[in-house]
Amino acid sequence: MKKAVMLLMISALVAGSLFANGQQEAAADETIVLKVMGYGDNSNQEGISWKRIVETFEAENPNIDIQDELLYDEAYHQKVTARLASGDVPHVAYMGADARWGAPWKEAGQQYDMTKDIDTAQYDINLIPKMGPKGERYYIPMGTSNMTTVLYMNKNLVESMGFSQPKTYEDLVAMVPAAKAAGIDVVSIDGADGWAWGSCLMSALVARTTGDLNFVSKAVAGEKSFTDEGFVAALALIERMVKDGVISEKSVLVDYGTNTSNFNNEKALFMVQGQWAAGSIENPNVKDDMVLMAWPKMPGEKAAANNTVAAAWQVGYGITKDGASDPAVLDAAVKFINFFNSEAEVEQRLRDGAIVAPILKGYVTPSDLPNAVTQKVLLAQSAVECEVIDAFLTGDPNDALNTGMQKIASGLATPAEVAAEVEALARK
């Protein structure tokens, strides 16, 4: 009888063990769906790299299914708003902590503090800023400083016309006759994109004419006014540049792709864009010798703001609260973000010109970087940083400013009128 009981007990233990192992294997085989919003499109480096990263990650992690949506520019921001409003919240998304890249997630209550999930063996935690009121870190930045008001110079083309790197605005004006005779622009900007006027031009001009590197945040807080003389003077510089021929009045018809194409194809001596555009310049006659610089000394510039460029922290990928609510999804999300930020991928983004300084722990910058990357590093080291407008100004006031600058460039509004509209909307 005792032997029979013992055999039954052993059989039960074996059966239980087999059942438990079966459950573990089933759990291991279970597919985890990870909903991700990626930034880029099929024609730019960000989008091409994104697709490759997703495919490689899925191949190495067959139990994780990345259901990604890849969008770029304003289409991305619009879709973020739409998905959050409908409750279709992604688990991982391209985001930031400022007004433009962070506000939608904050307003939807979807910011998740990733601090405890950050692998300090992979990342230098000191290079990841504290983003929330209690030191929260909502995403992993792709790099450190993100310069938005870069003036790209085609060094060979400028010198072929008998000029050199401009030190003052008047030096740019002096290039206008020769550029017109050659049928090219002096400075090209994607003026059809409202954000480009604010992020890539006005942000630096405001600091120059007010002498205050933090004027925008102060104006948003009500400590300054958008009708202050210095702010109106910055808007007036747009009017002056168009009048002087430094920027074409037709620039309001030029989109991002056309702007970078014009510079790449030597149809402009200079281009206004952010540092990220460096990766879009592929013509060796341009990229191998181009110079990335701050705007030269501008009319009415205050000494306190010489050599300023607008800059903010890099955006990156973060996890939403919905994504963090399921432990299995959270684990998959962390694994994917770490894969996205692996040393090989970070170095590729560095070489492509998408970032300036990686946030990886102990990372040593290669000595054989392309000219565009070297130029960005030099600019970041030498320039004085000021605020990016849409990191603080959002909604109707920011929209009015962007549209207003287009109107100024087209001769449809005065700087004072635009400033008054922005101020009125900011105080509502």
UniProtKB/TrEMBL annotation:
Taxonomically, the superkingdom here is Bacteria
InterPro entries tied to this protein: Bact_solute-bd_prot1, SBP
Where in or outside the cell it occurs: the entry states: Periplasm
**Record's GO cellular component terms:** periplasmic space
Q: Which residues form the signal peptide?
A: 1-20
Task: Give any Pfam family that matches.
Answer: SBP_bac_1
Indicate the principal place this protein occupies in or around the cell: periplasm
The keyword Magnesium is annotated on this UniProt entry: no
UniProtKB keywords: Signal
Instruction: Spell out the family assignment given in the record's similarity comment.
Output: Belongs to the bacterial solute-binding protein 1 family.
Q: What is this protein called?
A: Raffinose/stachyose/melibiose transport system substrate-binding protein
Q: Which organism is it from?
A: Spirochaeta isovalerica
